[in-house]
Amino acid sequence: MRNIDEDTITQAVLARHAGAADTRMRDVMTSLVQHLHAFVRDVKLTKTEWFEGIRFLTETGHITDERRQEFILLSDVLGVSMLVTALNNRKPEGCTEATVFGPFHVPDAPEYALGDDVANGARGEPTFVRGHVRGLTGEGIPDAEIQVWQADQDGFYDVQLPGVDQYQARGILRSAADGGFHFRSILAESYPIPHDGPVGRLLEQLGRHPWRPAHLHFMIIAPGYRQLITHVFRQGDRYLDSDAVFGVRSSLIADWIRHEPGIAPDGSTLAEPFHTLDFDFVLDRT
Ligand code: BEZ
Ligand code: FE
Predict the structure, then answer these.
(1) Cβ 100 under 6 angstroms from ligand 1
(2) 63 CB-contact burial (10 Å; exposed 0-12 / middle 13-18 / buried 19+)
(3) Does a structural domain hold residue 84?
(4) Which helix (H) or strand (E) holds 220?
(5) pLDDT (tens digit, 9 = 90+) per residue, 238-281?
(6) Do 265 and 143 share a structural domain?
(7) Angstrom distances, CA of residue 17 to CA of 1, 4, 8, 23
(8) For an engineered disulfide with 122, which of 41, 128, 152, 178 has Cβ 3.0 to 4.6 Å away?
């Protein structure tokens, strides 16, 4: 095909994909090309703007490495991560809702026994978390793998802290025979997503802030049930209605109850204020 012009270019590209062996791949790329071309036509993209887009993506690639995933961050702030999460987690009423995974999970966090302190030296006011993992009919799910991770009082995950060479404020626990779990950690605080790179500058240009409301991440895995990736958000946080990555669901907001110094739920006597959080998770069957 020759003499392709602005009216025929879209069809010309799609025609080249007709022979793709993987039909799902072909369908996804067909839609992507159609939407991309429609966008270029819609905004009448200039050459300078096109090049600025290329420069932005190049910078996003350059800052991405083993510890930092700027492309996921871009997907997060554009609402794509939450859209994919919502589309792929339609569940019956009563199940705990899913939300974004985020870039700070690690697959090899330390394992802890119920009741342990997962903070492992992370800074923050003590918090005692307890709840149950249940199925939709209320049955406790025993031996569910419960992965938790969170930022410290300054809003940093362990993997963001130079010089911290052991995992902190994260861990893997297993629910008891009745589905119950409890552990000690630190108070969740709101924090800005990494904003010293291209995504941060994009937010600034768009007049947006980079903050996420305080939350505690959970990933729960149990045979016979669908894996749940979610957070519990802290009631009262000022960013609940403007989360930089659009992850807040009302059903995931809970009270971190503050207690004066004294006897904590694990029986220890604390000289500082502490908090308790109760939250139950309901999993869908596979
Ligand atoms: C997080 O909650 O850890 C997170 C999610 C999306 C972007 C950045 C951080
Ligand atoms: Fe987080």
Answers:
(1) yes
(2) middle
(3) no
(4) strand 215-221
(5) 999 999 999 999 999 999 999 999 999 999 999 999 999 999 99
(6) yes
(7) 14, 16, 15, 10
(8) 152
The answer to whether residues 153 and 126 belong to one domain is yes
Give the pLDDT confidence of 144-170 residue by residue, as tens digits.
999 999 999 999 999 988 887 899 999
Q: In the predicted model, what is the mean pLDDT of residues 24-46?
A: 98
C-alpha 120 – ligand 1 centre gap (Å): 21
Cβ–ligand 1 distance for 219 under 6 Å, the answer: no
Cβ(76) – ligand 1 distance below 6 Å = yes
Q: Name the burial class of residue 194, with classes exposed (0-12), middle (13-18) and buried (19+) by CB atoms within 10 angstroms of its CB.
A: middle
Q: Is residue 1 part of a domain?
A: no
Query: Is the CB of 119 inside a 6 Å radius of any atom of ligand 1?
Result: no
Number of domains in the chain: 2
Please name the residue whose Cα sits nearest to atom 1 of ligand 1. Answer: 102
Considering the domain architecture, whether residues 96 and 41 belong to the same structural domain is answered as no
Does 110 fall in a domain?
Answer: yes
Asked if pLDDT for residue 1 goes beyond 80, the answer is: no
How confident is the model at residue 77, as a pLDDT? 98
193 lines ligand 1 (CB under 6 A): yes
Domain containing residue 190: 92-283
Amino acid letter at 226?
A: R
In tens, the pLDDT along 87-133 reads 998 999 999 999 999 989 999 999 999 999 999 999 999 999 999 99
Q: Which residue has the tokens 């768009």?
A: 206
Residues 195, 249, single domain; the answer is yes
Among protein residues, the one with the nearest Cα to ligand 1's atom 5 is 102
Q: 57 and 101: one domain? A: no
Residue 147 within any structural domain of the chain: yes
Structure confidence at residue 164 (pLDDT): 79
Beta bridge partners of 257: 276
Ligand 1 atom nearest to CA at 149: 3
